[in-house]
TrEMBL record:
PANTHER family: POLYSACCHARIDE BIOSYNTHESIS PROTEIN EPSC-RELATED, UDP-N-ACETYLGLUCOSAMINE 4,6-DEHYDRATASE. This is FlaA1/EpsC-like NDP-sugar epimerase. It comes from Algoriphagus aquaeductus. CDD domains: UDP_invert_4-6DH_SDR_e (cd05237). Keywords: Membrane, Transmembrane, Transmembrane helix. Residues 293-582 form the Polysaccharide biosynthesis protein CapD-like domain.
Amino acid sequence: MNFLSRLKILPRWIIATLDSLILFQCALFGYLVRFNFELELIEQYDAFAGSFTFMVGGLLVMQNTRSYEGIVRHTGFRDGSNIFKTVMINFILFLFLNFFHGNFLNDRFLLPTSVLIIASLSALFMLVFYRLLVKELFVYIKNGVTEREMRHAAIFGAGEAGIIAQEAIKRDSKSLVNVVAFLDDDSKKEGKNIDGKRIYKGLEDLEKLVKQFAITELIIAVRDLSVQRKNEIIDECLRLNLTVSIVPPVDQWINGGLTAGAIREIKIEDLLSREPILLDNPQIEMDLKGKVVLVSGAAGSIGSELCRQISHYHPSLLVMLDIAESPLYDIEQEFKEHYPGCRIKIILGDVRNKKKMKEVFKDFKPQVVFHAAAYKHVPMMENYPEEAVHANVIGTKILADLSVLSQVEKFVFVSTDKAVNPTNVMGASKRAAEMYVQALNEYLETNHKKFHTRFITTRFGNVLGSNGSVIPLFKKQIMHGGPLTVTHPEITRYFMTIPEACQLVLEAGVMGRGGEIYVFDMGEPVKILDLAKKMIQLSGKKVDQDIKIQFTGLREGEKLYEELLNDFETVKITHHPKIKIAQVQPSSYHKIDGQIDLFQDLIGKNNETDLVRHLKALVPEYISNSSRFEVLDRMN
């Protein structure tokens, strides 16, 4: 048995030998059946010579059909059809030989026709049967005879994806998973079997099955499963302390075939409390194809994903601008390896450096600008307000002004929901930047009607997995055994994935006619405490037993709830039900232009109180929370 467990693929000569012996035995069996096991008659018809001839004929046919080349433990429908072809050709060959031999060479057939029929039918059965037997033997050895410890699993989904997942697990010799049951919401499938495994209804019997079969994990294999149902399944698995895995979307494996290794563990990104937002606008390619596109903050989470998505639309040149040297080098190497067809230019530069930015616009003449460069960490910017204003406000103004002077077609500004009713310096600085680009667009529409740069703003919530977001922090804390730090038990946030965020930015660039602030309908906000608990459970740990959760208190500038619209904003619908336009009254361009210029003097004076006071004057809805700047609100 140990030899068999190490033997993964039977050599071709063994399969050819086995097939030959089976052909010989089946022909001999045909003689025995035809002549009622009467040895005298069998000897009279020279059964051994006839059987040998049948075997040789079969071997010659096999040389043509190559039926012995299939890997036995992976036997499937195509292997069966190949064996059927071999047997049928051999049958037809002997019909022809019988006719020729009986009419021209001898008065007797090589094989009696009845023997030929019996031999062919039994050969077809035995050749397929022994392959399936060997296939099951490999599975048996893998599951029960070897010393390895198997994990018992159930598959949720008794459709095509579930069957393929089961086959992928069986074929993988390294897999330690043994599927013992199927679950499905379709009541018509209840009580039926797949590969000897019973199908049960929904989640109703899961707890009983866990006890009966010692199930330790569940694999979700359902196409187009709603987020709500997925969450219900995962919540039940977490309650029963089961590991949850998921079969990837069919477009990720259909060409190469699904493998057991492709079945991945559930990620927290899979648990958004809404359906994924999918955009597919052919106009994006028309807007970007053959154009020079500049992305600021190109080495960041959003900026780098923007670059990846833009590359699919065939720009003539993709200019990647960032101040972070190492991440910029990494994205350059990634593009050289994975996107060799996209022409890129890497620029190490700071959006606050007006002279350097002038050179960039002069040298490359971008036609579309995506401005994602920003300081975004709330507590950090609360400690260094001058840096937030310098990067987020003045840096945005520099790029926006240069875009107008360089006759850029569109300028898409990446903002945040923290700009809505801001309670911190970072959010207020992003709101000030929103106000400037919107006022500039209004001014250009009024005074330059023939052609002007169109400024569009996108506003969305927290991005799962982005640099500095809560997910990577929790993952790191779990790796170190905890505790997970949550600022407040009631704190909630809106979440979206990085690809979703970048799709919004690209879609906004297409839809925008200038001056709009685009927001997503992001479903229900997620409680950070619930997120922490699920991440602990998905890592196979128990909350408060293996890993504790520690409440640290709200950080400077942080608020419990975030909004996508402020108290004075309304929304207008668009062609996409998940995208809305915030209706915001633009500020006077000349007024806000002068107010932002004043920031330069305040930064030079190094007086953070005067700087933040001026920011509050510029953004009246900015009311500090859990911050040393609350005193400025009380003074007003």
